[in-house]
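Supplementary Methods. Inverse-folding protocol.

Structures were first reduced to a C-alpha cell string of length 167. This string, shown here, constituted the complete conditioning input.
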C-alpha cells in the first residue's frame, strides 16, 4: 500500500473519464489483495512440494508438511519488514524507475529471469533451505533427495508464475 501511494495513476491515459479519482479508495482492495497473495504464495509452492515429495519420496504427513512449510516461510516475514522500510524511504522517482525496469523484461526468457530473481533471492533461498529440511524431516528423506524435491517444486512454481502471474 505504501508503494502504491507513491505511484501516480494515469487514469486519463487508460481511457477513463476526467473524474477526480482518489487513490486512497483503492487502499482496502490493495490490502485485501496483499493478504490473499501472501496466502497463495505460501500455499501453492507448499502444495507443489507436498505433491512432489509424495511422488518422489513416499509417505509423509500432509498436515504436518503444510505446517512445516508455514514455519519455513519465516524468512519471508523479514523480507516484508524490509520492504516496509524500503517503501517509506524510496522516492517516487526511484520507484517509477524500478518498476519500469522490471516491466521491461518481455518474452519468455525475460519473464523467467524475473521470476528467478523474485523467488531465488536471499530470503527465498533461506525459505528453500528450511523447506528442504522440512521435507527431509517429514518424509524421512536424505538431505540430497529433500533438496531435489524442494528445488523441483520451486522450479515448477516459477514456471507456473510465468504463465499465471496471479500466483
Amino acid at each position: 500500500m505504501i508503494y502504491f501511494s507513491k505511484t501516480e495513476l494515469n487514469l486519463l491515459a487508460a481511457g477513463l473519464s476526467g473524474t477526480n479519482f482518489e487513490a486512497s479508495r483503492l487502499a482496502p482492495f490493495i490490502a485485501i489483495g496483499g493478504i490473499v497473495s501472501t496466502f497463495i504464495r505460501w500455499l501453492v509452492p507448499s502444495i507443489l512440494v507436498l505433491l512432489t515429495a509424495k511422488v518422489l519420496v513416499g509417505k509423509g504427513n500432509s498436515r504436518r508438511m503444510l505446517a512445516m512449510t508455514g514455519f519455513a516461510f519465516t524468512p519471508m516475514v523479514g523480507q516484508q519488514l524490509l520492504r516496509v522500510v524500503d517503501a517509506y524511504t524510496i522516492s517516487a522517482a526511484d520507484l517509477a524507475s524500478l518498476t519500469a525496469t522490471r516491466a521491461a523484461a518481455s518474452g519468455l526468457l525475460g519473464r523467467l529471469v524475473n521470476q528467478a530473481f523474485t523467488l531465488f533471492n536471499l530470503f527465498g533461498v533461506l525459505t528453500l533451505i528450511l523447506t528442504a529440511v522440512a521435507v527431509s524431516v517429514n518424509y524421512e528423506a536424505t538431505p540430497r533427495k529433500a533438496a531435489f524435491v524442494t528445488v523441483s517444486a520451486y522450479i515448477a512454481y516459477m514456471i507456473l508464475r510465468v504463465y499465471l502471474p496471479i500466483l
